[in-house]
Amino acid sequence: MSHTFHGGGFSLIVVLFILLVIVGAAWL
């Protein structure tokens, strides 16, 4: 799982943004 974090904090922000979009779409 250490190789998944090679992108740094940017990938984590992207994942959080995608989750936010999915939750927003679910609320709509």
Automatic annotation (TrEMBL):
- Name the UniProt record assigns to this protein: YjcZ family sporulation protein
InterPro entries tied to this protein: YjcZ-like
Location within or outside the cell: Membrane
Family of this protein: Belongs to the SscA family.
Give the record's GO CC terms. Answer: membrane
Recorded hits in Pfam families, A to Z, give: YjcZ_2
Provide the membrane topology annotation.
Single-pass membrane protein
Q: Which domain of life is it from?
A: Bacteria
Q: Which UniProt key words apply to this protein?
A: Membrane, Transmembrane, Transmembrane helix
Q: Where are the transmembrane segments?
A: 7-27
Q: What is its main location?
A: membrane
